[in-house]
C-alpha cells in the first residue's frame, strides 16, 4: 500500500531516516520531513508526525507538548518551519530540561 493510500486510510505516521526513503539520506532527518512534504502533507502535519505522533507511538505520556509538568526539548530555528521546512536546518539554540539520573 502506498503512503498516500495509507494516509487516506487514516494511518498515523512518524518520521525516521533509516528506512531507505527516496531523497532522504541516512541521518538526514529534515530530508525525511521534506519527503513527506513532497507527498502533499502540510508542514503542520509534518511537524506533528515528527513530534507528538512520535511520542504517542512510543507510549510516552509526560512529553510531546509544551505545558506545565511536561518534559520537552525545544529548538529555536532561523525561520518558520510552518512555511519553510528548511528552517529546521538552521538551528540557533537547543534547550533541554534538566534530567536527574
Automatic annotation (TrEMBL):
InterPro entries: Amidohydro-rel, Metal-dep_hydrolase_composite, Metal_Hydrolase, Metallo-dep_Hydrolase. Coiled coil: none annotated. It holds the Pfam family Amidohydro_1. Residues 2-92 form the Amidohydrolase-related domain. Gene3D superfamilies: Metal-dependent hydrolases, Urease, subunit C, domain 1. PANTHER family: ALPHA-D-RIBOSE 1-METHYLPHOSPHONATE 5-TRIPHOSPHATE DIPHOSPHATASE. This is Amidohydrolase family protein.
Amino acid at each position: 500500500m502506498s503512503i498516500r493510500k495509507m494516509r487516506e486510510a487514516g494511518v498515523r505516521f512518524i518520521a525516521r531516516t533509516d528506512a531507505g526513503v527516496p531523497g532522504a539520506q541516512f541521518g538526514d532527518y529534515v530530508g525525511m520531513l521534506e519527503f513527506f512534504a513532497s507527498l502533499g502533507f502540510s508542514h503542520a502535519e509534518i511537524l506533528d508526525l515528527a513530534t507528538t505522533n512520535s511520542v504517542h507511538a512510543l507510549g510516552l505520556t509526560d512529553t510531546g507538548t509544551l505545558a506545565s509538568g511536561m518534559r520537552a526539548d525545544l529548538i529555536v530555528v532561523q525561520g518558520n518551519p510552518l512555511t519553510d521546512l528548511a528552517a529546521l536546518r538552521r538551528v540557533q539554540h537547543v534547550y533541554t530540561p534538566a534530567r536527574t539520573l
